[in-house]
């Protein structure tokens, strides 16, 4: 991918991560309450966030690039979270969706808005037929978000994740191209 896609809605800009995003990403990723759903340990240092930003930027160099957009609020030009399409399998025309949002931006429909942009872009530009997502069974806001976007729950993956010192079941969701209708 030669040019990183920048996407915009009425309230958001989805753009490439920049090194200066590390402090805001650190604020999100160090929050143990939020990270209980994310599938990884909370970050402990700003250096870890800087390394994570470098990983997101480096994904563009993969043979099948992975996209992780910085979700920026247009109202305050602050990093509100991120979303991305990763584990792209060109042959199978599938990928996985991931996302997180800072607590201050939750409950306002921002992630729904961001994911609508990302899903539209993925179906239009990556020749995708299927987008998958995995969610902790207790993460009810995320489950409602996916269902509201048309994702269908396909099953439960027993002890599929390991973080915070224990195994976690995950619910498997998918969205097919034929089922994607931009929600209003």
What distinguishing features does this structure have?
184 residues, globular, alpha+beta, eight-stranded mixed sheet, Aminopeptidase
Question: Care to describe what's here?
Answer:
- This protein is an alpha+beta fold.
- It has helices spanning 22-29, 32-35, 46-58, 110-125, 140-148, and strands spanning 7-8, 12-16, 67-73, 78-89, 94-101, 130-135, 152-163, 166-176.
- The chain has an eight-stranded mixed β-sheet, with helices on both faces.
- Helix 1 crosses helix 3 (46-58).
- The radius of gyration is 16 Å and the shape is globular.
- The mean pLDDT is 93.
- InterPro entries: Acyl_CoA_acyltransferase, GNAT_dom, N-acetyltransferase.
- Residues 12-169 form the N-acetyltransferase domain.
- It comes from Vogesella indigofera (Pseudomonas indigofera).
Structural class, please? alpha+beta
Mean pLDDT, all residues? 93
Question: Which fold name fills CATH's third level, the topology?
Answer: Aminopeptidase
The count of β-strands is: 8
Number of helices: 5
Low-pLDDT regions:
none
CATH architecture: 3-Layer(aba) Sandwich
Biggest β-sheet, characterized? 8 strands, mixed
Proportion of residues in helical segments: 25-40%
Using the alpha-carbon principal axes, give the shape. Answer: globular
Encode the helix/strand succession as letters: EEHHHEEEHEHEE
Quaternary status: single chain
Question: Gyration radius, to the nearest Å?
Answer: 16 Å
The CATH superfamily bears the name: Gcn5-related N-acetyltransferase (GNAT)
Pfam families: Acetyltransf_3
Organism: Vogesella indigofera
Protein name: GNAT family protein
